[in-house]
Design brief:
Helix content is about 25%, strand content about 35%. Strands 1, 2, 3, 4, 5, 6, 7, 8, 11 and 12 form a 10-stranded mixed sheet that branches. It has a two-stranded antiparallel ribbon with strand order 9-10. The chain is built from 7 helices and 12 strands. By secondary structure, the protein is α/β, with parallel strands linked by helices. The protein has a single domain (about 10-244), classed as Rossmann fold (3-Layer(aba) Sandwich).
Amino acid sequence: MGTGGDEREGTTRSTQGGQDLPVNDLPVDDRPWGGRMEQAEAFDAIGDRYDEAFPHKEGQVAAAEWLAGAVPPGSRVLDLGCGTGLPTARQLVDAGLQVVGVDLSGGMLARAAAHVPEAQFLQADIADLPAGEPLLPGSFSGVAAFFSLLMLRRSEIPDTLRAVHGLLEPGGLLALSMVEADVDDVPIPFLGNTIRVSGYLRDELRQVVTDAGFEVIEEDAYAYAPATSDVPPELQVFLRCRRG
């Protein structure tokens, strides 16, 4: 799963090789559960245990490989919900791409900056991406969104996909993954913490993506059993998409 947290509520932070850039306000999340910052703080606490729990990511690696090979050499690519930067941001940088990673978890971003110092990282809520540099309209050839939309409410996902559509150049590519589940903003235990997740059944996910202006080029599904009893087995759905 991708993440979304800063130890200081209500901020975005942009980093290049671990260096902080200007801070802007984030909108307040008024959900009764306590706000998305609590979600981010859970991932701050999880830290490196996330990669330990999900050591084999064949579907994610294959989807990022497709993205890296399908965009022009040296393109700008966005890793939405980049987590620790492994494996996706590292994989995309190693393919010669310019990578911008976005996540809300300050702990995850610190790890990402250490793992992939060549990339640029921005601390922000993926449901309300800040306008302007480095997220300029039409400035990306590709976007990877691996399990990051799980962290949003269903009501937020269509707008987030439309925002991604706007960040892509015409014909730009989106590699997207979700866990197949008919749920909306439900709390689940996850690596000793509680997070809230949403999901769709496969046909509905495809419809949400196409409604946001994307053509689904290819679809894959993988049965996945995490390396911990704290996280149940899941069916992972990967969509390879083109901006329409």
